[in-house]
Design a protein that fits this description.
single chain; alpha/beta; 8-stranded mixed beta sheet; about 15% strand; Peroxide stress protein YaaA; YaaA
Length: about 250
């Protein structure tokens, strides 16, 4: 099973790990793209005003330029601990026990705009780059899409692929449309039984759902087994109405 998570724009400072080593991240096939994206971001950080425009930052976020300038030398920490925000606060990775973290290392991938797909326990620095950032010479969709699509399609041995990313990050490298892959959409159900997509609670529900998977560590071989596990774990998860032959969708009720 592979869980694809979005990153967060907010990140913890510091870390106990050594400085960034791109070739030690998971999925080394992405190293050429990582070298290019890192060089582009570090280079632009030498022009603070231009970087703030590219990243859509306000005056109170000027420290993000410093983060990017020093990302090659900064201390690192596991990706799952680095990210903060609604999803990752609900997941609460620092409180996971050793077995849950080992399960995350094997099954959880975070999609970074800067590094592409990284393993949950890959050591990364704090940085700022989003899927819609406009860095000169770095068109993120063009930069990542083909490589990430190829990587995900080559991972048939991953079994169930559960795409919990936002649509913006999924566009940088869609998951393969095959039998045991699905995109998860968080919804609320009204009194008439109709569902509607959520925003803030979408992220929290995904964090809680991921944490439950990491703490229970089920052996899941199919989407049907995942739905059965979710029911037993107290979640409402079901197939969404299918409108085309693309990637199947699941609805998670918040």
């Amino acid at each position: 099973m592979r869980l694809l998570l979005p990153p967060s724009e907010t990140k913890r400072d510091g870390g106990a790990g050594d400085s960034l080593e791109l070739d030690r991240l998971s999925f080394p096939v992405l190293t050429p793209q990582r070298v290019e994206s890192t060089a582009a971001v570090v280079g632009l950080s030498g022009e603070p005003a231009a970087m703030m425009r590219a990243l859509k930052l306000g005056p109170r976020q000027a420290h993000e330029v410093d983060r990017n300038r020093s990302l090659r030398e900064s201390a690192t920490m596991p990706a799952l601990d680095r990210y903060t925000g609604v999803l990752f606060d609900a997941l609460d990775a620092p409180t996971l026990d050793e077995d849950a973290r080992a399960f995350a290392a094997e099954h959880v991938v975070v999609h970074s705009a800067l590094f592409g797909l990284v393993g949950a326990m890959d050591e990364i620095p704090a940085y700022r780059l989003s899927h819609d950032s406009r860095v000169p010479g770095l068109r993120l969709r063009q930069h990542w899409r083909a490589a990430i699509v190829a990587l995900l399609e080559s991972g048939a041995d991953a079994g169930v692929v559960l795409d919990l990313r936002s649509e913006g990050y999924a566009e940088l490298g869609p998951a393969p449309a095959r039998g045991e892959s699905a995109f998860v959409r968080v919804v609320a159900v009204d009194a008439s039984g109709r569902s509607r997509a959520l925003n803030h609670f979408n992220k929290r529900a995904k964090g809680l759902f991921t944490r439950a998977l990491l703490t229970s560590r089920p052996q899941i071989a199919s989407i049907d087994e995942l739905i059965e596990w979710a029911h037993d774990a107290g979640f409402t998860l079901s197939f969404a109405p299918q409108h085309d032959a693309g990637l199947r969708e699941l609805e998670l009720v918040a």
